[in-house]
Amino acid sequence: xxxxxxxxxxxxxxxxxDRRLKTDIQTIGVxxxxxxxxxxxxxxxxxxxxxxxxxxxxxLRPQAYIKCGAGDGFD
Length: 75
What we know:
By secondary structure, the chain is of the alpha+beta class. Helices cover 15% and strands 25% of the residues. It has helices at 4-7, 54-60; strands at residues 22-30, 36-42, 49-51. Strand 1 (22-30) and strand 2 form a beta hairpin.
């Protein structure tokens, strides 16, 4: 997951931000450059998270996009 802190350039994370791994996705805001902020849960379970979707980051902030190297096909 790329949390809002990471979008703003603070913090660090190792979770994936691929929308295919998320459920209950709801838009809750939009950043100044048009990047949407969402609330969602991971399909694997757990609490509600707030963050962005990797496919949108790849378009609007390519410098912040990292393709996972685990070979799982997720961003």
